């Protein structure tokens, strides 16, 4: 009887400690490529931006997530977006270099980048991959560990994204 109780207790503890299976999420973003006037050193200059922001929006995902980014080009330049450092294991067509994995997205057109974030975590960046447009069309990609997993370092007091542009 004692051994049966022990067995049941073991089963219960195994059940209660089994991690809850977490579904990989789909993270959707909308990137509108628009020209915007900005003032720098007293002069207004038109620059190409994503959603009118410079640097552009940050993409947040967890390892294992699927990321879907609908890019619509309202600028007069053809464009493509490259997810720098992101391993595109079975979605090479979503890598972004113009004339290598895709034709550029022409003015007035959209292209949907659809990729899985596999086996990676950390902070990377995305940028335009055609002509000189990356100078203003860029932003961060933050990949957090899977739900319930921690970073391989103690919890920091705060977080900040730093993007260096030249
Ligand atoms: C930027 O400013 C110029 C000069 O004032 C103007 O002609 C142009 O339409 C503006 N462009 C945008 C996108 O606001
Ligand atoms: C992408 O966004 C554009 C502009 O909002 C829209 O017309 C198009 O239907 C979207 N594409 C998809 C696949 O959702
Ligand atoms: C955009 O791409 C199309 C098709 O390749 C090309 O005909 C057009 O000249 C390009 N536009 C610019 C501004 O480079
Ligand atoms: C992403 O992963 C899911 C699940 O494994 C798979 O069904 C889907 O085809 C993958 N998508 C891409 C774009 O590789």
From TrEMBL:
GO molecular function: copper ion binding; oxidoreductase activity
TM segment ranges: none
Domain Plastocyanin-like: 35-147
Keywords: Signal
Signal peptide: 1-24
CDD domains reported in the protein's UniProt record: CuRO_1_LCC_plant
Tree of life domain: Eukaryota
InterPro entries given in the database record: Cu-oxidase-like_N, Cu-oxidase_fam, Cupredoxin, CuRO_1_LCC
Alphabetical list of Pfam families matching this protein: Cu-oxidase_3
Family of this protein: Belongs to the multicopper oxidase family.
Name of protein: Plastocyanin-like domain-containing protein
């Amino acid at each position: 009887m004692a051994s049966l109780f022990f067995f049941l207790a073991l089963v219960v503890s195994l059940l209660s400690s089994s991690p809850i299976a977490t579904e990989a999420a789909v993270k959707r973003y909308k990137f509108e490529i628009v020209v915007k006037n900005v003032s720098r050193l007293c002069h207004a200059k038109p620059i190409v931006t994503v959603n009118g922001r410079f640097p552009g929006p940050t993409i947040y995902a967890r390892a294992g997530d699927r990321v879907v980014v609908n890019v619509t080009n309202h600028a007069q330049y053809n464009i493509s977006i490259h997810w720098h450092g992101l391993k595109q294991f079975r979605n090479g067509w979503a890598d972004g270099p113009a004339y290598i994995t895709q034709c550029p997205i022409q003015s007035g057109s959209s292209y949907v980048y659809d990729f899985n974030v596999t086996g990676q975590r950390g902070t990377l960046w995305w940028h335009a991959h055609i002509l000189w447009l990356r100078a203003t069309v860029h932003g961060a990609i933050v990949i957090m560990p899977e739900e319930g997993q921690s970073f391989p370092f103690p919890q920091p007091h705060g977080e900040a994204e730093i993007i260096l542009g030249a």
